[in-house]
Each structure stands twice: as structure tokens, then as C-alpha cells.
Amino acid sequence: MPLPQKPRILLAQEQDAEPSSPAFLRVQRVMLRASFPDGERSEPFSYDIVLRDRLDAVVIAAHFRDERGVRNVYLRSCVRPPVALRNRNTSPIPERDDLGNLWELPAGLVEVDEQSPEGLLLCATRELHEELGFEVDPRSLLPLGPSSFPAPGMVGERHFFFHVVVDPSRRVTPTEDGSVLERKATIAALPLDEALALARQGLLEDEKTELALRRLAELST
Asked: What is the pLDDT of residues 197-221, one digit of tens each?
């Protein structure tokens, strides 16, 4: 089952535009010194760390079994500006024409008041409704392996993984979160093994999505 065509959302950089709101990300330069097990201490060195108020994120695999008993999983198209604006001239590989337009599992940032085990479930419930259009009981969300650090050399963000069985007939139009980058997304359901095959072919380039799909497949065996 091939995935549907992703919407071709193009980004144009407004050179003269000034942001009207505080920066979402902040870079903190710190001075560090390493102490080694043998007692040696390093010379001081500087290190840049990316900070944000809402640091962590949830990732949700919503799945169901079709009439053949095959497990299917929902994916959502998403445009990612850092990837879309990647310099093609310095890339070590040829880039596709739809660079920056990805297929992903629904995911979202944990709000400040959701920074607890219970809050993570509420966050995942909200993101599932906003991005896929499913309303579920937070208690129906199950952990999908331990949390992980997606970019530990740059940011201390943790990803918290969940999975939930959904009823396709109960899906409604997603509410989205009001941001430009969530508009007009395409939602698709496909067999889990086909999604993993696409990941192996390099057609699902979002790392957290592939990790969650592999974990979901382990539960299915």
C-alpha cells in the first residue's frame, strides 16, 4: 500500500522579517572542565547547549488491526524548516525534491504543567487529538519502551514514547494547534511492516518515528 502524496509545502525565507515574539530556542555557552576516573582534570573548554522552556516531547504510535488482522499505524505529513532549508550544495548525498516534508508519528512538546508521569499521558492525549483526530482516555495510552535523547550533543530533550489502539471509524478532523506548520497535513494509515520497509528504504527519515515503529513491531511478535 503506497503512501499518499504528501502536500508540497514550500518555505520561503523572509530576509527582512523580524521575529515578533521571544526566541523559542536559546543557546547557552558554558565553561566546563572534565574530571576523569584516574584523577586527571581537563583544561576548561566552552560548550554550547540549546535550551527551551518546553524541553521534552511525547511520541505516539496509534494503531489498529484491519479486517485481515494486520496491524496498521497512522502517520502524518509534516514540514520541518531546518531540514527544508538545509544547504543542498554542502550535502554529502543528493537530496530529494521534497526535502523537509516528512512522514512522522504524531508528537508534541510537553507543557510546563505536564512535567510529570500523569502529565505525559495528558500531553500525548492532547497531541493525538490535535494531529490525528482521535479522542482517547489517557489511561489507554501504554508506554512504548523507555525515553531516549534524540540529539544529546546539542540539547537535553527527552522523547517519551507511547502507543494506543484506536478505532479508525471514530477518527474526526484533527483540531491542530493553530500553528502554520500543522496546516493542511495529510494523514495516512498503512501496515506496520510496510512502514518499516519504507524506513529501511530511506523514505521515512524521521528518526523518532522509525524507533517507535520498530518498538511497536517488537510488541507485535
From this structure: 999 999 999 999 999 999 999 986 5
DSSP label at residue 102: E
Rounded Cα gap, residues 166 and 74, in angstroms = 10
204 contacts 103 by C-beta, under 8 angstroms: yes
Which of 165, 158, 179 shows the shortest CA–CA distance to 65? 165
pTM greater than 0.90 (yes/no) = yes
Query: Which residues in 102-118 are b (16+ Cβ under 10 Å) and which e?
Result: bbbbbbbbbeeebeeee
State how far the Cα of 127 lies from the Cα of 156, in Å rounded to an integer: 21
Q: Does domain 56-220 have CATH number 3.90.79.10?
A: yes
Which residue type is seen at 87?
A: N
The single-letter DSSP state of residue 155 is B
Contact 141, 162 (CB under 8 A): yes
> What are the strands, taking DSSP E only, across 16-85?
26-32, 45-51, 57-65, 71-79
